[in-house]
Amino acid sequence: MTLLKINKLTKSFGGLTAVANVNMEINKGELVGLIGPNGAGKTTVFNLLTGVYRPTHGTITLADGSQEIALEGLKPHKICSKGLARTFQNIRLFKELTVLDNVRIAMHKNVAYGLLSGFLHLPSFKREEDRLVEESLRLLEIFDLADKKDELAKNLPYGEQRHLEIARALATKPKLLLLDEPAAGMNPAETMRLSEIIKRIREKFDLTILLIEHDMSLVMKICERIYVLDFGMVIAKGTPEEVKTNEQVIKAYLGEGVEDA
Amino acid sequence: MKKILKAKGFKMLTALVLTYIIIQVLVSTNIINDYMQATLVTIFINIILAVSLNLITGFTGQFSLGHAGFMSIGAYTCALITARIPTTWGFILGVLAAAIVASIAGYLVGLPTLRLRGDYLAIATLGMSEIIRIIFINMDDITNGAAGLLTKRFVNWTWLFIFTVITVYFISNFLKSTHGRACISIREDETASEAVGINTTKYKVMAFTIGSFFAGIAGALYASYFYVIKPDIFNFNKSVNILVIVVFGGLGSLSGSVVSAIVLALVSSFLQAFSDVQMILYSLLLIIIMIFKPGGLLGSRELSIAMLGDWRAFIGEKFKALRSRKEKKTTAKEDLDNDPVENK
Amino acid sequence: MDQLLQQIINGISLGSIYALIALGYTMVYGIIKLINFAHCDVYMIGAYIGFVCITSLKLGLIPALLIAMAICTILGVLIERIAYRPLRNATRIAVLITAIGVSLLLENGMILIASPQVRVYPQIDGLLAKSFDIGRITINMKQVLILATTIILMILLQFIVKRTRIGKAMRAVSLDTEAAQLMGINVDTTISFTFAIGSALAGAAGVLVGVYYNSINPLMGLLPGLKAFVAAVFGGIGIIPGAMLGGYFIGMVETMVAGYGGSMFRDAVVFAILIFILIVKPTGLLGKNVREKV
User: Fold this and answer.
1) What is the domain range of residue C173?
2) Closest chain C residue to A89, measured at CA
3) Which of A90, B24, C139, C234 is the most buried (most CB within 10 A)?
């Protein structure tokens, strides 16, 4: 069953077309990779999916039970509440806040007390806040961050900051998780651990995952299907094996006229 | 856990009651005379203003230079009501109406302007508050124009004490709720905040509306104590003064705002003795503080007992010449910990 | 029709003043992203220096103008040096509060030295006292003087910014301070120079206002300062031609509103325009949209 359908997605900035006529389909439960050389438009696709940019043309449709929801043109927080969550290429945590707060904030849309209770700290406030802490800690547990709940996010080592960002995204209870270069800046051991974690959360939360990655070993190892983007267009798709041997992909990565050089 | 929370609340309540009793004794024995009482009232009003502006600027990260505008709306609303119903009930009605009208104005101003960021927002809010002031000057029939309104005194300092405590309590509670955290996340990173499902526009406007609500209360209290209000009281300089209190106390620190409102009021009443050069000294002080402590007194932290301990150790270190080397090391570390903003 | 033309001529005079002040705001903002609240007080001090030169020192208008510009230049550089430079790496709000502090200091310093009362610029005899009529429109020589001085200064400014080394450095620093530094540009000097030019223009505006409106006081900078800043934002802050355009536009609107019976609301109209422009096109008339990278 198709969870997300992207049809003829296009984004132009002035004269530059960053994403051109991209068609993609992601099935429920899949783990799909999106790769391509620098400047191919991968992050722009993420920004279009999550509403940071408005598409110039094209549609993005999310299946919700039997319904189909059009995502294009919605604001980012609306898209998040429909079940899309993301991480950022250049980590964007709430740096001056604690690890716990980072996760708690992401649970905001599922909090069941109103403004009045917030002002007066009524019983419903206490009940909900206790639940938030409990759920946050359970989530942090998965990333071995529970005992660091009171540390400021900015004081975490780099790898843990990336983990926290994933935990924060999960706190929004997404159906589809978008990971933007989750292994960037990690050493092989850390990357290994990351791939374990991705596998684990995928099972535990019944997730569908789309990830952008430069680390080919990670992509080839964990992704079931891969889309390759170059100059804003999809130049290849298929299983890791198919993509690896695709001539156009090799050309895009190594460049043409290699023999001239 | 629950017990500790309750104990903490109890301690706070005891401290407040004690403060009240001490001030009351000082007032009734006339150690705090009428003139000093005016300073006391100014402190309370400034606390309300600073705490509410801190919610907007320090916690939500929206730079406003128009807080005096909302204060003036509250002041005029309350004065107009108490002029018709000159009783304590009239005053209470006036305060409520002031808060509501000011928060509606805050909502209407915030909705279009809060799409702007940083300095642009500051200038837009400055423009809005100037427009409000000019409107008050020109609504002769109702506001008596530039000459202003004259009512009478409806409140004593006890009322101000109560309203100040309520304001700080509500805003502090709000900031500890999920709504408050949503506001703080906007200051930290607006894009990330949207991405985790927070309607940032809604929460910016909410912070602005709540801030204006309490600014309206401050205005109402001003009108009901000092009984003379005119548009020029609520000019750009007033907005700046409130911002100075907030920045001096530390953006994102409620207790900082409270301490700073008290310190600055005491400083300026002390400077009154040098009336000729009072403002010059004040502005020099402002520049010097900003150059040497740009993060304000408390940075974005809240006052706590542990911190007082740190400071005592730090001050002790500075003034006592003889200390062992080991102790010096630890205090130097604490000194660094005390200035998170400067170390950024 | 005649009245409209007359208002346009008055508007150009006022607009020239705003444009001169706005240039200082816009250049400083462009280079260190600071709303320099003290700038309007430099303008006020320029007016006072002109006053002293003309009354006590019995100098002519041109020497007075030049002396005011020179002293304001020094003042501007000193303000940057003493108050703003130590805060180069502090939060912007801290620098802004400092700027407000400097502004208060200058205003109250002047009140202490010169008393808060209004001073009257002496009437200038000779050519400047004359006026001539075209049809039913009156143009006086003061208006000609203001426009001429403004045009000369703006041409000079354009020359400095576009054709000289230091001008190129200014543009480079305002585009990207770090990159400029890596290219061997002395950022501190460039910033000082920017303050120098902006303050000189403000000083000139101060003297011209004294001559045109005759009266000056220590708080005269506040409102024109705000409006000049509005002008800078209107044209697109950081953009030099934008400040000129904005200055003339605001000057024109203000005289029109005042001339057609709305004098009580002319300040409100200026601020309403500001808010409208900010909401519709926050980067100003000539500004480009900059997108945050995500």
Assistant:
1) 2-280
2) C294
3) C234
